[in-house]
Each structure stands twice: as C-alpha cells, then as structure tokens.
Design brief:
Strand order of the largest sheet: 2-1-3-4-5-6
Strand content: 5-15%
Distance between the termini: 40 Å
Shape: elongated
Largest sheet: 6 strands, parallel
Radius of gyration: 19 Å
C-alpha cells in the first residue's frame, strides 16, 4: 500500500515509517503537522493515512480536524488515527462513515495487530480500540442528555421513521417548530451540515445507541 504518516514526534514518525517499509508498504510522505497532511494527501492520493490526533499548529485536535476535512473532500479515503489521546467531538462523525480506525499508541502491543488494523481500514473496514469505543458511547450518551424533553420527543419520533409533518401532527405543534427542534438537536449532537453524512440518520443512531 501507499501510505502517508502524519506524526509530530520525529522519533515516533520515523519508527512508523520503518515499520511500514519493513512490512513492504511504500511511505509516500511523512509529515509533522495537520496542514502538511492535507497537502500531502491532495498531492499523493495514497491508499491510507496514519494520523496522530494532536499535531501542530495548536497541538489539540488538529489531526482529527484534518481528517474530517479530508473526509469531506475524499469520502472513501481510508484513515487510521493513532494517538495517545481519545478525542470524541470530531471522531463520532468519522466512525459512522467507514474506512476509519482509531487506535491508542500505548495499547498496540504487537506490530502484526497494527498492520492488520491498517489493512482492514484500507479495505474500507474499521479498527477501533475498545477504550475508544467506550469513550465514544459515553460521549454520545452525554450529548443525548443535553437535549430538552421536547427535543427528546422529536428525536424519538424521527427514530420511528416519522417525517417532520407527521411529527408536528403527533405533537400538535407547527412543522416550523419541529424544524427548529431538529436544528437544535443537530447542534447539541455536534452534527454540522456537511456533504459527508446524513445528519438525520446520525442523530437517530446516536439516540438509539443511548437507549
């Protein structure tokens, strides 16, 4: 496979590069910040990118934000987050799109496990560390808890397959009010409007997983 490695730690970056090359993969670029990652993917069009979460310029969640940007530009592009930290705000939408993995550096105990996860994500599958899964579920439950009682009622009816018109009739409110509740739900569940995913479906999935 043709791989891009995005990791700000020079020693760790070089270690991943050598590991991948020893396994027979071609590392087409190895970069140390989020913008360089985006530029490298646009320029090389690799088969997959291995991405650290915390990278320059802010050293917060630049890596996962770059991953979301790339997902919008290249919806099927495989990406594997490899980090010491768990980021949930921007990771939840990525998990739902497929061809995505999130592993924790300290919990990858065998090289073969890492290479197997890499191949699985490159083939369009997923590879998620159990601690990441638990954190994502907890984050979703927390987000659901932020909904008002009325927003909860609206989302429950959406999950049952009702249209906004039908929901308005069931709750005896205006359809415009239902639309306002849906906008608030999307905002509280951190589901911005984008071409990469269907927010209504993602909101329902978040609701169902919280039950």
């Amino acid at each position: 496979m043709r791989v891009i490695v995005a990791e700000d730690s020079a020693l760790f970056r070089e270690g991943i590069v050598r590991l991948l090359q020893d396994a027979g993969h071609e590392v087409v670029a190895a970069v140390g910040d989020a913008q360089a990652l985006v530029d490298a993917v646009r320029g090389h069009r690799p088969d997959i990118a291995v991405i650290d979460v915390r990278m320059p310029p802010t050293m917060s969640d630049d890596g996962v934000q770059a991953a979301r940007l790339l997902r919008r530009e290249l919806p099927d592009f495989p990406m594997l987050l490899l980090s010491q930290h768990i980021e949930t705000t921007n990771s939840v939408p990525l998990v739902s799109t497929g061809a995505f993995g999130y592993l924790l550096k300290d919990r990858v105990l065998h090289v073969d496990d890492f290479l197997s996860a890499l191949a699985r994500v490159a083939a369009g599958g997923s590879a998620l560390d159990p601690e990441v899964v638990a954190a994502l579920i907890n984050a979703q439950n927390t987000q659901i808890a932020r909904l008002s009682e009325r927003e909860h009622d609206v989302l429950a009816l959406v999950a049952e397959g009702h249209s906004n018109t039908a929901i308005a009739a069931r709750l005896v409110i205006a359809e415009r009010t239902v639309e306002a509740h849906m906008r608030s739900i999307f905002q509280k569940l951190n589901l911005p409007d984008s071409a990469e995913s269907n927010r209504r479906i993602l909101a329902v999935l978040t609701y169902l997983k919280s039950l």
